[in-house]
Amino acid sequence: MGILDSLENSPELKGMLGQLGAAVIPVVLGEVLGNGGQGGFSAIVAKLEQAGLGEQVKSWIGTGQNLPITAEQLQQVLGSDTVKQLAARFNIPVDQLSKVLAQQLPAAVDGASPGGKLPHTA
């Protein structure tokens, strides 16, 4: 069972996208954070830090409360084309996908960085 599996049961996710969308979001996050075109955890972290979001990233990796990121900030980091491609691939409206990813990305990074360290595969 992967760290993204628990997101399927997130009440916020189900409320926003319904059962089908909630089942797809962990897969989309896996694309963004895993072997997708974004380059994995370390690449996403580097992109977020380069975009001036280092404080947010540090909060996700650290042990304190996770600072939020906006859908617009995430879309800027990932690139509009990437977000549009993911939305089209999984049949989710772009604005909803960006919003949900922005809500779930901090928890996904936090869950993948126990003890304040990113996984070795990052």
Structure, explained:
It is a single chain. This protein is mainly α. The chain has one domain (12-112): Orthogonal Bundle (Arc Repressor Mutant, subunit A). Helix content is 65%, strand content 0%. The chain contains 6 helices and no strands. Helix 1 packs across helix 6 and helix 4 (71-78) packs across helix 6. The protein is globular, with a radius of gyration of 13 Å. The model has no long low-confidence stretch (mean pLDDT 76).
What does this entry show, briefly?
65% of the residues lie in helices and 0% in strands. It has helices spanning 11-33, 41-50, 54-61, 71-78, 80-90, 94-112. The longest helix is centred in the N-terminal third of the chain and has 23 residues, at 11-33.
C-alpha-based Rg, rounded: 13 Å
Tally the beta strands.
Answer: 0
Helix content: 55-70%
Terminal-residue CA separation: 18 Å
> Structural class, from helix and strand content?
mainly alpha
| Shape-level CATH architecture | Orthogonal Bundle
The low-confidence parts are none
What is the percentage of strand-forming residues? under 5%
Q: Any idea how many domains?
A: 1
Can you tell me the CATH topology?
Arc Repressor Mutant, subunit A
- With helices defined by DSSP (H or I, 4 residues minimum), what is the helix count? 6
Shape type: globular
CATH class reads Mainly Alpha
Mean pLDDT: 76
What is the N-to-C succession of helices and strands?
HHHHHH
CATH superfamily: YidB-like
Please outline the major beta sheet: none
Protein name: DUF937 domain-containing protein
Organism: Bradyrhizobium pachyrhizi
Pfam families: YidB
